[in-house]
Each structure stands twice: as C-alpha cells, then as structure tokens.
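Ticket #4471: structure export looks truncated?
Reporter: QA, pipeline team
Priority: medium

Steps to reproduce: submit the single chain below to the structure queue and open the exported record.
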Amino acid sequence: MRTKIRRVGPASRALLALTRHGALAVASRLHAERAITPTRRALALLAGSILIGIGVASFRRADFGLPPYDMMLSAISLHTGLTLGQSAWVAAGVLYIISTSLGRPPSLATLAFTFVNGLTVDAALSLTSAPTAVPVRLVLVGIGLTSIAAGI
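Actual output as written to the record:
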C-alpha cells in the first residue's frame, strides 16, 4: 500500500483522502514526522475525556435538560445516591459486560475514557454551582457544546 500512495498524483491523492482511512493513509505518508504515536494518542484521549466531561457538567449546571444518555445517568444517580460520574461508571460497566459476553471486550482506551470522564464530570460539578440567571445558563450551554465538540 505504501508504494501505491507514493505514486499517486495530487488529484488522485485528493480523491483517496475522501474516506477517513484514505485521509489517514495519505496524511501519514505526507507527514511521517507528525504521525500519531502512542503517547500522542494517550494525550489526545485524556484531553478529549476531560473536555467531554466539562461539557456534560456544563449541560447539567445549565439545567435546560440533558441528552438521553446523560438523562439516564442522572436518573441512576438520583435513585442510587451515586454521583453522576459514578453512575456513568455503573452504566458503562453494564455495557462492557454485555459487549464482552457478545465477544467484543472493551479496549483499554475505552476503559480509560470512561474513568477520566467520570472523574472530570464529578470534579466539575463539585467546583461549580447552579446559576439562576438565564443568560449565564445559556453561556453554560455554549460552553458545553463547544467543549464536547472540541473533545470529540
């Protein structure tokens, strides 16, 4: 595959990069010095987990409603006395057991994401309080959207 990527011209390279895998192949050949190393991947996972956790906590503090999965976690938290992050660990644990029983065990990165995300949500919720002013709540929604988009 490496020799084929080196032989394509600029127009063919642009067409090859239309798919995610094609784009990654072209980028790795053109920018070999900036290839994703395991350390870089781990740092990206950590940063993404933290950003998504901050976004979830922002949505929770804005109190305009939650996305469906976070609403389920909120219900688990309400009925069990667990924090939102701990209820995320419980729900993810159930899903991991199901996926493992179906022959698809979670990767170490998946487990790390869930752990860091739960810690971040709990930390952000403990460090902030719920605002009452609607403009401030709207700003929190904007922060939540931006943070989750950046984390993804």
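Status: closed, not a bug. The export was complete when the record was re-opened. Leaving a note from the reviewer for reference: The first helix runs from residue 2 to 7.
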